[in-house]
Amino acid sequence: MADDGKATPEKKSWADVEEEEEAKAKAEAEAAADASSSAADAQAKQIEALSLSVPEEEEGGGGGGDEHGPPLLDDSDESQIQAVTSGGTVYESASAFEDLKLTQELLKGLHDEMGFSRPSKIQAVTLPMILTPPYKDLIAQAHNGSGKTTCFVLGMLSRVDPHRKVPQAICICPTRELAQQNKSVLTRMGKFTGITCACAIPPAQKDYVPISRMPSVTDQVVIGTSGTLIKWITHKKLATREIKILVFDEADHMLAEDGFRSDSERIMRDIQRSAGGCQVLLFSATFNDRVKDFVTKVIKDGNQIFVKKEDLTLEKVKQYKVLVPNERAKIDVIKDKIFEFGQKVGQVIIFVRTKQSTKDVHNALTLEDYVCSSIQGSLDQSEREKIIQEFKNGYTKVLISTDVLARGFDQAQVNLVINYDMPIKFGTRDEPDYEVYLHRIGRAGRFGRKGAVFNLLCGGTDNTVMRKIEDYFQHKVPEVRNWQSEEDFETALKDAGLVE
DNA sequence: AAAAAAT
User: Motif Q motif at which residues (predicted)?
Assistant: First the structure.
């Protein structure tokens, strides 16, 4: 009966750089002139009650790999959110997938293949917005693990014509792993529709074929990373003429981060030119003020859903500080505490700051016969896939990773996250990367499950970073009193609900 | 002092 969290794969015209700077300056001016009616604020419908209400875990019985549906919405009034949005259109929140005029094939995929019974809150609110003509753009923020993937996957599956063998939907992701994961969700959900999906990521070396010899894409949906998508478009392997819907997963990152931003702009411009525009969906758990301001200027007339940053931390994922005297002690904590307790409870991801650190930590642990694996973006593609596969299979329990897996990676059994290094903004010493922090801890507690996070802090800088994070999210993080005490760790895991 | 994406 104490069987917890079996896989529920949640399952689930355009500004130039200069214009953005201009927009930023303008926004600041506006904000100064009239704080109460800045354009972004006025339009944003802050739906604050969007946090998922998840039933207590009540899964019984074993059953390998069988999947549960998403948590049911409460039968309270809360489940009936009415969002009045841009253009005055009123959308009725969907209390059942049946309310959405989906095809029988799609409903079958949702119920039979995915095991979903009813929409999660973010799904209930956004799906009508996505699926009701006129198809308006959407910027949607919702908590980690709350079911965003299903929103845009269902959006793409509903809007493409299965009978036309031509690309009609594109989804852009920040990492290859996320692209593959999203493709896998879409393929499962669309199992009975006949819709197919191509994954636009660089091939493993062994599968390499020159782009000139690659056949044109005939799949209705293409999900990929920005560089490869651009490559396919440039070489006329991916026609954008009939694209009806364009999705940015982890949109704050894709639209605001250097490198990604220009790629994203490029793809939007291509579609704008050849297809005359299409519905654009932006999804992420994080949109900081700066990015929110930017994206609301890029996607002007869309519907918007935002969550206050103070409401973003997941209640069921307990965070802790662990003060250690030196770097070496971090390894000891992993060995003596995390391997001791953590991997018995579920799977563990250890986040480090650099690629080199993944190797260092991995080696240090391997030297002492601890079994783990590590991943970072410089590994060969086939190696990356193998490591992910082994982790998703549950074959490996402890995975050391750079921020390549910080966003979107969905593995229900992960209920423990270790911040071996705290995330800091590039070029700074003690300025936290709040978004990365939130995404990392969101790897635990998928779909309302319980989880724990241990922040390993060594020295003044780490403490400063942690304190700023607490202030930012207005969330006090308790301390594990003694890093050497087994009891203290056990108590923490008990409080988190991970051990009896 | 950087993760990521890709040529």
Answer: 95-124
Domains of chain A: which residue ranges?
17-307, 317-495
pLDDT in tens, A48-71: 333 333 333 333 333 333 333 333
Can you read off the two tokens belonging to residue A144?
A: 């980690």
Above 50 in pLDDT, residue A26? no
Average pLDDT of the residues of chain A: 85
Å: A246 CA to B4 C1': 21
Q: What is the third-level CATH fold of A317-495?
A: Rossmann fold (3.40.50)
pLDDT tens-place string over residues A451-500? 999 999 999 999 999 999 999 999 999 999 999 999 999 999 999 999 98
- Topology at the third CATH level for domain A17-307: Rossmann fold (3.40.50)
Question: Helix, strand, or coil here: A91?
Answer: strand
Distance A307 CA to B6 C1' (A): 34
Neighbours of A304 (CB within 10 A): 25
Structure tokens, A367: 């030297």
In a 3-state reduction of DSSP, which class is residue A495? helix
Q: Which nucleotide is nearest to A262 (CA to C1')?
A: B5
Query: Cα A286 vs. chain centroid, distance in angstroms?
Result: 9
Query: Whole-angstrom Cα distance, residue A81 to residue A121?
Result: 9
The span from the CA of A395 to the CA of A411, in Å, is 13
DSSP state of A100: G
Q: Shortest CA distance to A418 belongs to which of A436, A399, A434?
A: A399
Q: Which residue is nearest to nucleotide B6 (CA to C1')?
A: A227
How far is Cα A405 from Cα A355, in angstroms, rounded to an integer? 12
A210 touches strand B (CB under 7 A): no
